[in-house]
Each structure stands twice: as structure tokens, then as C-alpha cells.
Design a protein that fits this description.
about 230 residues; alpha/beta; Metallo-beta-lactamase, Chain A; seven-stranded mixed β-sheet; binds nickel (II) ion; binds manganese (II) ion
Length: about 230
């Protein structure tokens, strides 16, 4: 499967013949200045929560991709629905089978509000699968025992995208434990280096994962890789 990292928690994935885009926060990211959001293709825009550093480019990308569907918790999906985006609202514990595969909304321990302070529902992660693969996009979250429910309720994960930057989310030490909780050996790190609060010691982070028999991938912004 092809994955492109757009910086922070923004990823594009080709999955089930569709382009999935996660948490687009690109234009305000100084480290992602070389990314042209007009070149991004999206059939589905999946949003973990309403914080600005996960939604700021949604409307622009949805306008460029008029058939794209915003998939998120009820409040966040409806927020973009009110701004003219197609949307599919979901909520925790629920799953839905789309034309690319099944999406299950799982818990995240974090907060969520829109940039103006309005309520944005409860933050979420997603487990997404089809006959070919299964992966977990954790969103912004602390390490939580709820992650142990994922191997009990979803297919075996091929990889997981976890925040590792600390301060606003779990740091890499807890993320390595999260990898064990979700029973996954291949982890893509995100939510690091964007701001001063979340600068990552990459060597220490990779070492912490490898000591648990896990691989931590830290792609370059703009890099497309196969997983
Ligand atoms: Ni957040
Ligand atoms: Mn965030």
C-alpha cells in the first residue's frame, strides 16, 4: 500500500482503490511548505478530531475534490457538512463498510474543539480494513487500556500510525507500549517536530521501539513509501 506523509498527522493512503486523506494540516506547517495541497487527491477525508492542527485544509481540499466525503465523529462531520462538504458521521464503537473497506471508530484520550472553541465531539481513532490489509490511525491520544480492545474486535493490524511527539499526545515511550497493546510490529510515527513542544529525539524513539521488537518508521514530509 502506498502512503504519503504530508507532515504532522496528515497522511494520504491508497486503500481499496480509493485515496484516503487523514487530518490535513499542511498550509500552516512551516515544515510542509513544499507540499502543494492542490495536488492532493482525496476520495475520503478522515478526521480524528476538531483541533486546528488536524482540520485546517479540509475545506480547500474538499473543494478541489468535490466528490470527497468527510468521515469523522458526528459533530466534526456535521461541522464540515454545514460548510458544503459531503460527509458521513460516525461515533465511537461504530463501524461502516465503505467502497474501500470497513472503518471502525475507536477511542482516543484527548480533547476536541473547533478553532472558535465550539464543541467538536469526542476525539477518535480509526481502524480500517478490507481483504488486503488492516491498519490503525490513532489520532491524538494518550496511551490507553482501550487500545487492548483493538486486537479483540478488529482484524490483525498490518501497521499503525501513532503519535510519538509527547506533550499533547503520548510520547514515544508510551507509543511503544501502545504498539504492544494493539499487537502491531510496524509503526509509523506522527505528531512530532511541528512545534517546539513536540521535538522528537528520533534515534532514541527508534531504539525504544526496536527494544520491543517493533519498527518505528519516521518518513520525510512529502515522502511516499510502500508498506
Ligand atoms: Ni489535538
Ligand atoms: Mn494535534
Amino acid at each position: 500500500m502506498k502512503i504519503t506523509f504530508y507532515g504532522h498527522s496528515s497522511f494520504g493512503l491508497e486503500f481499496g482503490g480509493k485515496n484516503l486523506l487523514f487530518d490535513p494540516f499542511i498550509t500552516p506547517n512551516e515544515k510542509a511548505k513544499h507540499i502543494d495541497i492542490n495536488s492532493i487527491k482525496a476520495d475520503y477525508i478522515l478526521l480524528s478530531h476538531g483541533h486546528q492542527d488536524h482540520i485546517v485544509d479540509v475545506e480547500a481540499i474538499a473543494k478541489n475534490n468535490p466528490d470527497s466525503v468527510v468521515v469523522s465523529g458526528f459533530e466534526t462531520a456535521a461541522f464540515f457538512g454545514n460548510r458544503g462538504c459531503k460527509f458521513h458521521p460516525m461515533n465511537h464503537g461504530g463501524k461502516w463498510t465503505f467502497d474501500f473497506g470497513t472503518v471502525k471508530v475507536v477511542n482516543a484520550v484527548h480533547s476536541s474543539s473547533f478553532p472558535d472553541g465550539a464543541y467538536a465531539g469526542h476525539p477518535a481513532g480509526f481502524v480500517i480494513w478490507n481483504d488486503d490489509a488492516c491498519f490503525y490511525f490513532a489520532g491524538d491520544t494518550a496511551l490507553t487500556m482501550d487500545m487492548k480492545l483493538i486486537p479483540m474486535t478488529c482484524p490483525k493490524l498490518d501497521f499503525a500510525i501513532l503519535p510519538v511527539g509527547d506533550n499533547f499526545t503520548m510520547g514515544y515511550e508510551d507509543a511503544a507500549i501502545a504498539a504492544e497493546f494493539v499487537d502491531c510490529d510496524q509503526i509509523v510515527g506522527c505528531h512530532y517536530d511541528t512545534f517546539g513542544y513536540i521535538v522528537l529525539d528520533k534515534a532514541a524513539a527508534k531504539d525504544t521501539f526496536s527494544k520491543r521488537g517493533k519498527t518505528l518508521l519516521l518518513p520525510e514530509i512529502g515522502e511516499t513509501f510502500e508498506i
